[in-house]
Amino acid sequence: MKLINKIVVAISFLGATAVFSSCSKDFLEKYPQDTMTDEDFWTKEENVRTFSYGFYTGFFSGYGSGYSWGNYFSGQAFNDDFASSSPGEFTKIVPESGGGWSFTWVRKANVFIERIKTVPMEEEAIAHWTGVGRFFRAMEYHDLVSRFGDVPWYENVISETDIETLYKPRDPRGVVVDKMLADLQYAAENVRVTDVGEKGLHVNKDVVLAYMSRIMLFQGTWLKYHTNDQARAKTYLEAAKWAAAELINSKRYSLGNNYRDLFTSLSLTGNPEMIMYRRYVTGLLTHSLMSYNNREPQTGISRDAVRSYLAKDGLPVDQSPLYKGDHSIADVMTDRDPRLSQTVTPDIRLTGVNSNASTSGYAVLKFLNETVKNEPEGSGSLNQTDAPVIRLGEVLVNYAEAAAELGNISQSDLDMSINVLRNRAGVNMPKLEVSGQSALVGGVAINDPERDPTVSAILWEIRRERRVELMMEGFRYNDLRRWKKLPTMDTNNNPKINLGAWINKDHYKDANGKLLVENLTVVNGPTNRIGYIKPAFKPETQRIFTGEKVYLNPLPKDQIRLYKDQGVDLKQNPGWETE
């Protein structure tokens, strides 16, 4: 409660700080006596801590707030984990303004870093808070680089009169990420392992290490698959592996006893897997994610995503003799990775039959707390389940993927990462084994006919583990981007990714024999009444991959004009120049 209240205070103060930091004393001969100013705020460590909380809601959104979404479930539905009746489309036009091209948070981080130097604190405290500021700067630049590629790097507070610096050209992506890595390394060395307050609710060394593993994995694989800069790619992947290993080997975190408890708990306090989480409190901060799982029609999980879960013997469904097929939900769930039954409901929910229908028939269970689903807290925007922000499970898959991308993954690497996840209580899947670039389970080579032939068997299985462990947690789209696999999201050329459950429409009739699901389209069956649900069945509703330009966002037109007025040619991203 104390932290949440401080965050609210800090957000209010941030707006005022932006004004004070841009005003000179010529405009204010006497400071107001009833409000805090920039001059008298930076006087003690507690104020520094309060200012830092202003970054939290921007970077640690969790399940969002009210009716606004975080990145979980439908907040990041633009990927192949969802089968939508109207699949989201790739960007088609250059925005006139906005589009994410903003350096407001970079400026706030730089203000923070500079003001810390003036606060009367011990050197250790100055180093800690400087590390926190540099961590947030790296976080914001990661977002900017991920969106736009090359961006101008700013590491000082820029005066509004310094036109040359304000309108400097874009710095190369590699240069910016090198600076980000330096920020993260400084933070990892100087941010405290423990700060005041409850563990998991504030930035500490472990949060830095966890995000470092995420950020450097993204940037390393992006360079590996999108550029010829393999030396930098290797450096970033090594940094990702190092950060993950530091956190894993610290033994400060472990996996809990139940996978779904991570996403449905009314309190994550003390959960051993939580490196950071967002707390929700009735009447103060609540969300609506659970309601969407519980009472409303939803965009359903795709058949492709459901098929990605292994059979209980550790083999892909097309290889395992245990797999019973997908012509009933009972068959789908039988003898599968237990995380499937903890993610997907055991019933098919159809438009015309269920008020909480799913577009694919498969509905998501992962975020639903059954004990309060019919209580006021389970409806509308009153949900109070706590949200993971970053957890050990992600760090484990980050480690495994970085090791595999570096080309030298060993059995011990798998045993300290993927196999820890598979040995989780309530999961208990067979160990993944490696031999060269081959993947095995129980000595049997895994030969998934669905494997992308450009990806080794061991890397394919690690990517599968990542997809399953982090299902619906907001990672899939950016994973496909960094792997340069966005064409797989094209529902016209790859229609199987936008299919749902197998149904027989004749099984859904009312008491008078009227068909309840007449409007559903099914395909790939013996008749037009039996087959897989195809939510988007019209040609005009298909999602088309429009070329490599969509890997980066276009720069807004107004910024290009503003730079041009200052004599600077702000280059548009490739492919968007004529749009």
Apparent shape: globular
Count of helices? 21
List low-pLDDT spans.
Answer: 1-33
For the sheet with most strands, the description reads: 3 strands, antiparallel
Task: Count the beta strands.
Answer: 12
**Rg over C-alpha atoms, rounded to the nearest angstrom:** 25 Å
**Estimated structural class:** mainly alpha
Measured distance between first and last alpha carbons: 49 Å
Strand percentage lies at 5-15%
Give the averaged pLDDT, no decimals: 92
- With strands numbered from the N-terminus, the spatial order across the biggest sheet is 7-8-9
Can you walk through the features of this model?
This protein is mainly alpha-helical and 579 residues long. Helix content is 38%, strand content 8%. The strands form five sheets. It has a three-stranded antiparallel β-sheet, with helices on one face. Strands 10-12-11 form a three-stranded antiparallel β-sheet, with no helix packed on it. Strand 7 and strand 8 form a beta hairpin. The two termini are 49 Å apart. The N terminus is likely disordered.
